[in-house]
Each structure stands twice: as C-alpha cells, then as structure tokens.
Design goal:
There is one protein chain. With about 170 residues, the chain is of the alpha+beta class. Strands 1, 2, 3, 4, 5, 6, 9 and 10 form an eight-stranded mixed sheet that branches. It has a two-stranded antiparallel ribbon with strand order 7-8. It contains three helices and ten strands. A hairpin with a 7-residue loop joins strand 7 and strand 8. It is globular and about 55 Å long.
Length: about 170
Amino acid sequence: MPNRKRARRSAGLLLFRRSGEAGFEVLIGHMGGPFWAGRESAAWSVPKGEYESEEEPAAAARREFAEEFGHPVPDGEWVALGEARQSGGKTVTVWALEADLDAATAVPGTFTMEWPRGSGVRREFPEVDRFAWCTPREAAERLVAGQRVFLDRLREHLADGRGTPDQEGA
C-alpha cells in the first residue's frame, strides 16, 4: 500500500485597515530565517501556520497570529476569505479582520534550525522578522504567489459588500 502524505493545511488572519487612495492596507509579515534574508518579492506572508485535523482552522488562525505577531488577535468580526492551494500543495484558509495595530510593536516567535546547513550549529531565528502595512499593490508584489488571491477576495468584499462576517472566528 502506498505511503500517503498527510494533507498540509494552514490557517491565517489578514488584518486590514481602510486608508488613502488604495482604499485599504493589509498587514503582512516578512518570513524569518536565512532562506528569506535579503529577499523582498514573494518573501512575505499572511500571519498563518499549520494545524492538525483535530484543531479548528479559526482556532489555528488565532493561535498563529498571536505566535507570529506576539500579541493577541484584536476584537472584531472575521470575514471568511476562503481557501487557496499553494504551489507546494498546502491548503491555506484565511480570514480578514479590520483592525489597526502598530506593526513596530510585533514580538515574533522564534524557531531553531541548523545553520549553516551541515555545520552542526543550531541557531534561533524569528518566525517573521518584520511586519508592514501595505497597499494591495505593494502586498501583491511582496506576498508569496499562492496567497495573492486573498487580496482579490478582500478587495471584492470591500468593494461590493459581499461576504458576511464569520462569527466563528470572532
């Protein structure tokens, strides 16, 4: 019988605030660690993380935001932005939440890995090394390709009022 891989799933929370000519900005994070150092394009992400089948996606989104940003999720109504499958096969579920946090106050969690590879030296790196508020255009340039669809879905929601707030995530 073939060995089946566990389906990888992540859940995240995309904060947005209304502003300026673009209409809104989103809070995204630059992925930490040596692989992403020095990269800007396609090196940013919605605050998100993997979860197991026993955990509800909304609970995982709440947990991961708190771990990556270092502060609890702000109060407010969550808007379901649905799922998207990334090129690596992971399915990502995202909600949007209108809130205005100071990106400079983030205190990201860390992870440990061997670096340089093969050296036997284990080093600690931030999960996210910085956060920034970006216009949709800026975010589309910075986000990994598989997450850009959430910008379009949020734009549609804000433009025509579609999308009912999801009370499960609130």
